[in-house]
């Protein structure tokens, strides 16, 4: 029944973005530039006054309307990566004009040195394609921009970029970013269409002013917006920009050009009403082997978005559907002291999410599980960014199961000088008589063009179980982003009792410090070695209380890293780690050893574990049909489960296949194994292969299948470093010197073999208008990758219908 429906929809939606006939019209030719206002980036002609036209065009990817012949032209791009400051090899021309209700961009991209990479992909999934990104800074502050990107077919990616600090340094990546990347979570309503032409591609873009937030402009002189154009050329691995951008800068956005004299911009009434109807039927396996299914009744909710002014937006939601269309990919945890992080994916929270960003993530909206109602105000007024969110969560999200947690989250940031800013944040989570409140003040100071200093001071006040505790958090970071020489440094502390009930901290109770100087060498244009970067990282972690009272360091790390960017987009790298980890009493507080006579003694562990390990990493270019990456690490590392020295094997890899312009296949594999050094036996083993298959029947319609297998095994634990005695987890009654046998549980062997599958059919012509139909199921396997006697533990079917009414 489903297949005929899909075939019918595919015929009705015949892929409008398919390549055009190469012999067809290619729009105005190069000679037309002589009659236009041409702004050459390499000549620093970066102030653009686009014409205002009372005209409309058909967004079809063909620049054949007369108005395109009167548009301003951006030309003469410069390469930014892998080597900045050299002329771009491929020609790019961007035309821009605007009308009363929208701004228009026409892109003509030529590729004389290789084939165009283009697929009919889902929104935001065009990272392997050629494409152009527009960074539109509607507040002219050089700190934030709305990002609109397209591939050669006009498939969209969009998001926001708020610069929070420099990103120089080596880290674990062989292709280190030289600038902050945009957050692609937000989605906007705009139009684009592209086509292939001989030697390249052309794209038309229309961005309605209703979809933008912008300043209140001067009635006579008009507004000034910043604009940067970035082009990705996959066959060479190059990234080109219209306004020349240098790596030796603390800000990428501050190096943008400008659109000047924008006047008569009419947003009109900005009210988006987005009702939605959902139906879920979920099942779970009961102890007697039967299945209990609940739900199935339609649930009605919706969202409202109101543009209060040009620069302030109010969002509200009632009974929203906050189920995720795609489940989170599985992760393996190696260090039990570190919490795992999962990105926010729910549309209501994603709108304006960049305005809530803080150093040390004190606002993390996934803490709000299933709100009954929520409201949010975001925007920027007079150089001050404002973000306020209030929500009432479902009682199922409370610790008691009877109270409804209430969240109030506030973030305010003020621009200072050319690139600096100061900010405050306040979060409040109230659950019955308990609460958690966090107050924060922070600043990002940019000076000397390449230096960035970030400081933060916060305090939490938490009341629970009749006890109130106050605790601090602090951080200072200094970065220098020179072209050849650079530096990253940090000193940060989080008290043991600091609680971020509305935020995310991967670990508390520590002081973390590092110093990372690095150097970069650039090859000549056309050389095999385009860029070589090496660095040393000196890293240390203290337990917070010991640091405050002058105690010794817990973990010491010395990392040596080397990364190379090769011609054509290849990346290779490697490094060696010399580390020493100290015993953490709190982590093993529940561990006891059972003696031969049946009594229990406290597990203490060896004071320190020395480590030495190396890693290798390879990234292939983004070929038209395939790309891949792999990371491998081996060496002596912690056996955290038994607090002993072990052998660590770690492999992470991904292969992405694009056999046609509609089919995408992604395979990832995560393997982590720890062996004992005494006898080579395996302490822990984790393997997660994941397969994602997506077929784009038409630009707004796709089918997605996901299969993921999680193998997580652990051996019976013993005192590996000393006595070899079995390890127990015990509860000790007050005043007792040792636990009673009845209070102890053997840390025996355990294994989980779980297979999870998802299927989704999605129709999404614009953000907010969607039809989703999906099924998900989890099954336990009898053995590792045996696929026999699979026992279904839970499953579910869901349908979602929503429509965006733009008033």
Major sheet description: 24 strands, antiparallel, barrel
In terms of DSSP E residues, the strand content is: over 45%
Give the termini separation.
36 Å
Query: Radius of gyration over alpha carbons?
Result: 28 Å
Label the structural class.
Answer: mainly beta
Q: Estimate the helix proportion, in percent.
A: under 10%
Poorly predicted tracts of residues: 1-35, 166-175
Count of DSSP E strands? Answer: 45
What characteristic shape results from the CA principal axes?
globular
On the 0 to 100 scale, the average pLDDT is 88
By oligomeric state, this entry counts as single chain
The number of helical runs is 3
Question: What distinguishing features does this structure have?
Answer:
52% strand, mainly beta, 24-stranded antiparallel beta barrel, 807 residues, 3 helices, disordered N terminus
Secondary-structure blueprint of this entry?
Blueprint: H1 2-12, E1 38-40, E2 47-48, E3 72-75, E4 78-81, E5 86-87, E6 92-98, E7 102-110, E8 131-137, E9 144-150, E10 156-162, E11 191-197, E12 200-208, E13 223-233, E14 238-241, E15 257-262, E16 271-285, E17 291-295, E18 299-309, E19 312-318, H2 347-350, E20 371-381, E21 384-393, E22 406-416, E23 420-431, E24 434-447, E25 451-464, E26 467-481, E27 485-494, E28 510-522, E29 529-543, H3 544-548, E30 555-566, E31 571-582, E32 591-594, E33 600-602, E34 608-619, E35 626-639, E36 644-657, E37 663-676, E38 682-698, E39 701-714, E40 727-730, E41 744-746, E42 750-766, E43 769-780, E44 791-802, E45 805-806
Parallel strand pairs: 1-3, 2-15
Antiparallel strand pairs: 3-6, 4-5, 4-14, 6-7, 7-12, 8-9, 8-13, 9-10, 11-12, 13-14, 13-15, 16-17, 16-18, 16-44, 16-45, 18-19, 19-20, 20-21, 21-22, 22-23, 23-24, 24-25, 25-26, 26-27, 27-28, 28-29, 29-30, 30-31, 31-34, 32-33, 32-40, 34-35, 35-36, 36-37, 37-38, 38-39, 39-42, 40-41, 42-43, 43-44
